[in-house]
Design brief:
The structure holds 2 protein chains of 2 kinds. Chain A is mostly helical. Chain A has 7 helices and no strands. The chains are: A mainly alpha, B mainly alpha. The structure holds protoporphyrin IX containing FE (HEM) and copper (II) ion (CU).
Chain lengths: 219, 555
């Protein structure tokens, strides 16, 4: 009894080392069962989740629009608001065009073209990261902070919340890339890559709206 | 020595199939939807007891017109935590637990669509609940601005920017919300994808329809609350100005976001209760559910309409006239599908021979109470009337007829009805009946008294009041203490019967649902063979249909 107890203790490191891959298997989306069954169910669930996510974005956008329409002095004195600079435009173009890279990448994996998948996937990761770094640089150069009136509150809220999603997307992409190097595993990552791809398109579509509202809607 | 994880899983499963679950598993991270369901139900019941104790403290304070038992900040904390706990840690997660237990069994599935996600959804709740309770021990106490937490009042918290009750309240509610959204994804996917062969949408029990509709509402509306809470948190602790009127912010936006969720939330709570009525009433009157199809469609209809009525909570928030008119109209529309349901319940038991076992008593009592609460709801939806009684005890009376007298009664009906299925044992009928009468009568004493109080003008959320209101307040308080006492026979019965009750047969009520075709308690994988469904859900007294179990179809 005593020895069996120790045997089962999760603190034993060697057990963890053996179990960890199995646990990961289960935590990462492709785990369990046969691929066909899980893909459809998983994608359905993920789409439903994105529906929920879009309501959060819509709520924030509603707040922004309502505040903006009812506030007379939207920009505090001396503040010019977010500028539609070339920098922002390039950032946007990079993010949006990454949707046209990630899609062929996913298709490549479907046709088992592993190295093509990895290259295109890597480019997407680079583009996403570029956008994130660009966002940080933009934030740094702005003449207002999150506490600067409603313009600051809303701007950092919307770009920040969206930025978090870009970050999550990039992390997902990196995980999928790593998974593609685990021998015998890449063919199981289809759900993960499909979900990541869908998420990435979602993040891009949201940006189209945010970009129009934040930068194109002049006072 | 190799440790193959999946092999271990299989062995675990096999031993579980033979022995059933040991109590230890209920404290562990388990992915079986039945274990998770029980975890939810037991945990939320503990929160129900805590919330009930807070309520009795509130009622004790209100025995006298003066504020003398607790100080005002604590009083504010008491009603804030009472409301929050009852809604977010009792009714909504209890329903999640019950649905977790029942839905896969009712649609003939082996488990939920995403078992791991399911376990995570549950395990977010205990820490979130404890976090919420922990705020009682902060120097300035818990959040004090009611379960609405309207700004700007909720932003005026004493003390530290982060270590305050309001901050903790928001964080735990966001956590609970995340858990609910994950749960909703799981339920919707499960009901869509995991139905047994032959289980078409119009062969699903109404309970499953209810869960489906309620969880769709969670998906569509809950994110708005999460958004509101994030904004509130930013305002409270990070210096933004969304809801600060002094700095151009607009607190009314919070109300819109809040009620965009919290009105449908009343149906997230109520629809599963309606679903319970639709299971229990036919079983104990041996009649098919009257108008099954209309009831199923009405369920979706209620959910759909409830998305467009939230402004009826804001009639007195400087709401423009056109908005009041529109939302008064949509609110009254809800009465149509709800009426269909109430009519169907009545017609189901009409002229039948009733079997008045405990589940049936609770179901009939709850359904009857809903008529009363629904009528005061329609009254409140009439803008002129609402402006008169807004924020008075009339509103408190209205929603307690619904959340306690209807929904909590339905929950008790469910606990007794499925008790033999879940535990494999029978509860004690006499104790059950005692529990029913000890609940039903005091509940009506307590919550009826609130209506005259409100009509006479007593405001809610006050700890002192004009002496003219004392009479009804004493009645309400005494009723509430009795109500508190009524949980004792319940707990004694449930715990005692779970441990020592007589063994139950698989289908003690001779009910028609799929969940009754498997053993009690069901094996780990629910069914020996996945059933093929060939009949409508409520064919009481119709011998020509039966569940056919096809041995070729073992997944
Ligand atoms: C179906 C179950 C129902 C539940 C669980 C429910 C619950 C509630 C709750 C909790 C509140 C109080 C919110 C608060 O101020 O803290 C409330 C208020 C209200 N309910 Fe209901 N209700 C239900 C049905 C209805 C119906 C059918 C209608 C109208 C057709 C209705 C109309 C209202 C109105 C207008 C108020 C606002 C009263 C005010 O604040 O002045 N309710 N309800
Ligand atoms: Cu409402």
């Amino acid at each position: 009894m005593q020895s069996r107890h120790i045997d089962e203790s999760p603190i034993r490191f060697d057990l963890w080392r053996q179990r960890l891959p199995n646990w990961l298997q289960r935590f990462l989306p492709s785990g369990g069962g046969s691929h066909e069954d899980h893909h459809g169910k998983g994608m359905f669930g993920f789409t439903v989740f994105l529906l929920s996510e879009s309501i959060i974005f819509l709520s924030f956008i509603f707040t922004y629009v309502a505040l903006r329409l009812t506030t007379k002095n939207w920009l505090p004195p001396g503040i010019s608001g977010p500028e539609l600079s070339t920098f922002v435009v390039i950032n946007t173009v990079v993010l949006l065009s990454s949707s046209f890279i990630i899609q062929p990448a996913e298709n490549a994996l479907k046709h088992n073209q592993l190295s093509k998948f990895r290259w295109l996937w890597l480019i997407t990761i680079a583009m996403g990261s570029y956008f994130l770094v660009g966002l940080l640089i933009e934030w740094k150069n702005l003449d207002f902070k999150i506490t600067t009136g409603l313009v600051g509150s809303t701007f950092y809220l919307l770009t920040g919340f969206h930025g978090l999603h870009v970050l999550a997307g990039v992390v997902l992409q990196i995980v999928m890339l790593i998974r593609s190097f685990i021998p015998g595993n890449y063919n199981k990552t289809h759900f993960g890559t499909s979900a990541t791809t869908l998420f990435w398109h979602f993040v891009d579509v949201v940006w189209v709206f945010l970009f129009s509202l934040l930068y194109l809607w002049r006072t | 020595m190799t440790h193959d994880f999946s092999q271990e899983m299989i062995e675990d499963r096999e031993s579980q199939n033979q022995q059933g679950n040991t109590w230890r598993e209920y404290f562990s991270f388990n992915t079986d939807h039945k274990v998770i369901g029980i975890q939810y139900m037991v945990m939320t019941f503990i929160f129900f007891l805590i919330g009930g104790l807070l309520a009795m403290l509130i009622r004790a304070e209100l025995l006298t017109p003066e504020s003398n038992l607790v100080d005002r900040p604590l009083y504010n904390g008491l009603f804030t935590m009472h409301g929050t706990i009852m809604i977010f840690l009792w009714i909504i997660p209890f329903n999640a637990g019950l649905s977790n237990y029942l839905v896969p069994l009712m649609i003939g599935a082996r488990d939920m669509a995403f078992p791991l996600l399911n376990a995570i959804s549950f395990w977010i709740l205990p820490p979130a609940g404890l976090l919420l309770l922990s705020s009682f021990f902060l120097p300035n106490g818990t959040a004090q601005s009611g379960w609405w937490s309207y700004p700007p009042i909720s932003l005026q918290v004493p003390g530290d920017q982060f270590i305050n009750g309001e901050f903790i309240w928001i964080v735990s509610l966001v956590l609970i919300g995340i858990s609910s959204i994950m749960g909703a994804v799981n339920f919707v996917t499960t009901i869509f994808w995991m139905r047994a062969p032959g289980m078409t949408f119009f062969r699903m029990p109404v309970f499953v329809w209810s869960v489906f509709s309620a969880q769709l509402l969670q998906l569509i509306n809950l994110p708005a609350l999460t958004a509101a809470l994030i904004l509130l948190l930013l305002d409270l602790s990070f210096g933004t100005q969304f809801f600060k009127p002094d700095e151009n912010g607009d607190p009314i936006i919070y109300q819109h976001l809040f009620w965009f969720y919290s009105h449908p939330a009343v149906y997230i709570m109520a629809l599963p209760a309606f679903g319970i009525f639709a299971e229990v009433l036919p079983a104990f009157s041996r009649n098919p559910l009257f108008g099954y199809r209309s009831v199923a469609i009405a369920t979706l209809g209620i959910a759909a309409i409830s998305i467009f009525v939230w402004v009826h909570h804001m009639f007195t928030s400087a709401t423009p006239g056109w908005m009041r008119m529109t939302f008064m109209a949509t609110s009254m529309l809800v009465a149509i599908p709800t009426g269909i349901k109430a009519f169907a319940w009545t017609a189901t038991i009409w002229r039948s021979k009733l079997h008045l076992e405990t589940p049936m008593l609770f179901a009939m009592g709850g359904a009857a109470m809903f008529i009363f609460g629904g009528v005061t709801g329609v009254m409140l939806a009439a803008t002129p009337f609402d402006i008169h009684v807004n924020n008075t005890y009339f509103v408190v009376g209205h929603f307690h007829y619904i959340v306690f007298n209807t929904i909590t009664m339905a929950i008790f009906a469910a606990i007794y009805y499925w008790f033999p299925k879940i535990t494999g044992r029978m509860y004690a009928e006499g104790w059950g009946k005692l529990h029913f009468w000890l609940t039903f009568i005091p509940a009506n004493i307590t919550f009826f008294s609130m209506h005259p109080l409100g009509l006479q003008g007593m405001l809610r959320r006050v700890s002192s009041y004009d002496p003219q209101y004392q009479g009804w307040n004493i009645i309400a308080s005494l009723g509430s203490f009795l109500l508190g006492a009524s949980t004792l026979p319940f707990i004694a019965n449930i715990v005692g019967s779970w441990l020592y009750g007589p063994k139950a047969v698989d289908n003690p009520w001779h009910a028609t649902g799929l969940e009754w075709t498997t053993s009690s308690p069901p094996p780990r994988d629910n069914f020996e063979e996945i059933p093929i469904v060939t009949r409508p859900p409520y064919d009481y007294g119709n011998p020509k249909y039966s569940v056919i179990v096809n041995s070729d179809n073992s997944e």
